[in-house]
What does this fold into?
Amino acid sequence: MNTEHIKKDFPILSTSREGKELVYLDSAATTQKPKEVVEAISKFYLESNANAHRGTYYLSDQATELYEGARKKVADFIGATSADEVIFTKGATESLNFVASTWARKHIHEGDVILTTKAEHHSNLLPWMQIAKEMGAKVEYLELDDNGEITEKEIANKMRSEVKLVAVSHISNVLGTIFPVEDVCKKAHEIGAIVVVDGAQSAPHMKVDVKRLGCDFYAFSGHKMLGPTGIGVLWGRKELLEELEPYQYGGGMVGIVSESEVTWGDIPQRFEAGTQNVAGAVGLSAAIDYLNKIGIENIHEHTKELTRYTIEKLSEIPEIRMLGPKDEKKRGALVSFTLKGIHPHDLASILDEDNIAVRSGQHCTMPLHDALGIPASTRVSFYLYNTKTDIDKLILGIEKAKEILL
Amino acid sequence: MDQKYRDTLVNIYRDPPHKGKLENPTVSARTVGSSCGDIVEMDLKIEDGKITDAKFDGALCIFSTASASFLIQYIIDKSLEEAKKIDVDELIKYMNVYMATSRQHCGDLAIKALRMAIETYENKKD
It folds into this structure.
């Protein structure tokens, strides 16, 4: 993988502020976009724009074919059995809310348990807390060990017959831990529960095969994998999707409508009311093409090495406490840490003076930060365009912050 | 619509084979197109697990009419299992016409009616 060559595809990475080139270390929040993606969106609007699934004319057919082509591409990318199992949403957040509003509202009853982990992003926690409150159900948590991992024993202990739904992230957006989703799915299915996986941090970074994972729903966002904002995916097992009521109501999702009766359309259209984000789907499709061209396994290897290097370098700074597993093989492409005596926001601001972009705060995981006993943390995250030079600049920036504030 | 295909389709549309009602159908089904409002009614005569005769009726566009007509031509003398298998891509191939993306649902309409009829029949039998 030639990172210097790849970097040229991302014009924003050659921009400078006050003579300092951008060091972008916040891809877990959103990734930068290659020219190919921006150009595909632009080309769509300039040459093929029309309402998909609506018009009986050439241009509308073009839009429909691009939109459905993107659905097929997503299906292949995650190993779905059929494109009908892929629903386009605004992003992982909407995908997870979708499952809460449809499957959970139908199947979660009083006294049931929704099992999740202490590490979840609010988007994979609040929908479940809310639906539990509405239905008189309870949210329980898989606890993390000192390494930020979930043990087999903990999974086995928490799987009791009241558990009807398990919501787990594939990779923690703070700890970086790759959670044992296959094991969770196996044990959940043994007690008749379904598993919803938040794949926001895994789909962009590792080969995902929803069938091999054995999950029932898998959610992710386009903008975290080189695609545009406003497009995301919910994959669901066909049998489960087919029995669900619509999530929203409007155009394009019906069978027959009369003044007093309505029948719903087939999946996935049943779940896509109104004019859809065709340009977003086109952009996501171009992003997948780009990722396939480089190879998702190559990207995984590259970021794993960056993670290893970052852990090594940060270990040399005594004031640093890193979160999550020490072994880079057990983690995704990010490292979160605290720096004793310096608030994460202050560190981020000092790094920003040198045009280094990192994330600071609670990263939408307040219960996790409570459990870790820290108010906030700093997170650096990587993608295919990052280099060891970026990490070296980060380390220099941290040293500078120490000089100023300690 | 491509001129090459238009003549075939228009000819069928004007005088479609297999249009009408069966006198004593084994089973009937009706579907309505969600975006176009076209209605297909499908009558099947089933003997020994085989479709021995079929007719379609309804208010239909050129594509739906031609598809329904060709579909019946295809399924007569086929087993229920074989008849269930045909999908819109195969039907278009069989018809040897071009159907734009936005018109493929027209081709699908009669297939849906056929599947619904077979399903009704099989459920009744059970």
